[in-house]
Specification:
It is a single chain. The protein has helices at about 5-20, 25-35, 40-50, 70-95, 135-140, 145-155, 170-180, 225-244; strands at about 25, 55, 60-65, 95-105, 105-115, 130, 185-190, 195-205, 205-215. The protein is of the alpha+beta class. It has a 6-stranded antiparallel sheet with strand order 6-5-4-9-8-7, sandwiched between helices. The protein has a 3-stranded antiparallel sheet with strand order 1-3-2. The relative contact order is 0.12.
Length: about 240
């Protein structure tokens, strides 16, 4: 093996390539094809599934149809363009500001600018959560096409993080309709008790590609601030969208 080659990464990429090129496979078939033991195969498949690259249906695995549906060039520009706006937003509102993108069934944080309070949210770049849990995810889901949303809700594991988390597809759909109409989403202690978040969508060529969010302790980012905070977020997200 080449000295710079990462064996585990190579195995995972080979599995992903096989699933993208061919039919769904059972874990035993993947073990036999790549000469892997059960533990290694399970860990690789679990990681690929959790990051949204593959989906499990019954006893078989297949490549996700949802990965990478938005423009990579837009995402590259997004990472550079949003930084000044995030800093300004975090400074004006005093809370941590984020950018998140859809990654399979989850939303991944790709940019973070921390607020100026000692007690604040500590999400890091690379952190991810199921799309239905957060304001990030809900605002992206709400602005997907009907076909994309249907696929997401079909495959989404509705993990319940707190008693406030939506875990009913019908109620979630109704909630997403409201979000689409108002142009922003709120995570009212649905991801973590004591934490609230407000998010607005970012668009490229008319398609939602990311979300902008502010989060903080529920006692400080109270419901009384929702209108003012959401207005500021929508203005900021519209500005970012216009620059892409």
């Amino acid at each position: 093996m080449d000295q710079y080659e990462v064996s585990t990464l190579k195995k995972g990429l080979l599995i992903l390539d096989a699933l993208q090129q061919g039919e769904p496979m059972r874990m035993t078939e993947i073990m036999q094809r790549f000469n892997l033991n059960k533990t290694t195969t399970f860990r690789l498949l679990y990681t690929l599934e959790m990051t949204g690259f593959i989906q499990k249906e019954g006893h078989t695995y297949k490549a996700s149809e949802l990965k990478g549906h938005h423009s990579s060039s837009a995402n590259i520009r997004l990472n550079w363009i949003v930084v000044p706006s995030l800093h300004q937003l975090a400074q004006e509102l005093g809370e941590t500001a984020y950018i998140g993108v859809l990654a399979g069934m989850k939303v991944m944080t790709v940019q973070v600018v921390e607020g100026n309070h000692a007690i604040r949210s500590h999400t890091q770049v690379g952190d991810s959560a199921y799309a239905h849990l957060s304001a990030f995810g809900k605002v992206i889901l709400a602005h997907l096409s009907d076909e994309q949303l249907k696929k997401m809700l079909t495959h989404l594991t509705q993990h319940k993080a707190t008693k406030h988390t939506f875990d009913d597809n019908h109620l979630l759909r109704e909630h997403l309709n409201v979000i689409r109409q108002q142009g922003y989403a709120i995570d009212d202690e649905e991801t973590e008790v004591g934490l609230r978040c407000v998010a607005a969508p970012i668009f490229y060529n008319g398609n939602v590609i990311a979300a902008l969010a502010i989060s903080g302790p529920a006692a400080r980012l109270s419901r009384k601030r929702d209108r003012a905070v959401s207005k500021k977020l929508r203005e900021c997200s519209a500005q970012i969208s216009s620059l892409l």
